[in-house]
Design goal:
Number of helices: 2
Number of strands: 13
Number of domains: 2
Helix content: 10-25%
């Protein structure tokens, strides 16, 4: 569903304001289907650039140097970039059963949760069970944590199914509807837990 015209206008106004902080904006274009945008500008060095904004974003852009001959093709390039980003996001994962994900949440109170993959119901979803954490230094509330693999998994453990996205090139676990709430493959290093 395409965004409303007033929504697109508000986003474009904010995007031009953002671009003008560091660039001289020359012209702006948007994709009415997705609300993604591109602003043609000159950076502080005087180089002609295209500032590509993702559909929901107004404060961050991808700066790409261009030449004047590229300007008529920016609409097509914007759609191609959008299609590539969507394909990257929807790419199937190659996460094996037994892999461990970690999810940490919070700035002043940081909670760490570990998940073990127990099933792969579809190319973009995984079934997980929570693994309790154990402290290798400090305490569970304030210390370095690792998954407690000594605990036996039972068939009565509740299994959660999570969506996997590949937006960043590596798999991330979508743990809630809030866009920034993501888990990632555990590196094997202890995770830091803290409270105020």
């Amino acid at each position: 569903m395409a965004p409303k015209p007033e929504t697109i206008r508000n986003r474009m106004r904010k995007r031009v304001f953002t671009a003008r902080k560091t660039h001289v904006a020359l012209e702006a274009h948007f994709d009415p289907e997705s609300a993604a945008a591109v602003i043609v500008a000159r950076n502080r060095g005087g180089t002609l650039v295209a500032l590509f904004f993702a559909p929901q974003v107004t404060t961050w852009f991808d700066e790409v140097p261009i030449v004047e001959q590229d300007i008529p093709n920016l609409g097509r390039i914007l759609k191609e970039r959008r299609a590539e980003a969507l394909a990257r996001k929807l790419a199937p994962h190659d996460i094996p059963v037994g892999a461990v994900f970690v999810y940490n949440f919070g700035a002043t109170i940081r909670r760490i949760t570990f998940y073990r993959v127990v099933s792969v119901p579809s190319p973009r979803k995984i079934g997980c069970v929570e693994i309790p954490a154990k402290a290798v230094w400090g305490t569970i509330e304030q210390g370095s944590l690792v998954p407690d693999f000594d605990r036996e998994m039972t068939t009565t453990d509740p299994q959660a199914v999570f969506e996997i996205t590949m937006e960043s090139g590596s798999p991330s676990l979508k743990v809630s509807d809030w866009g920034l709430a993501r888990g990632y493959l555990w590196s094997g290093s202890p995770e830091t837990s803290m409270t105020d």
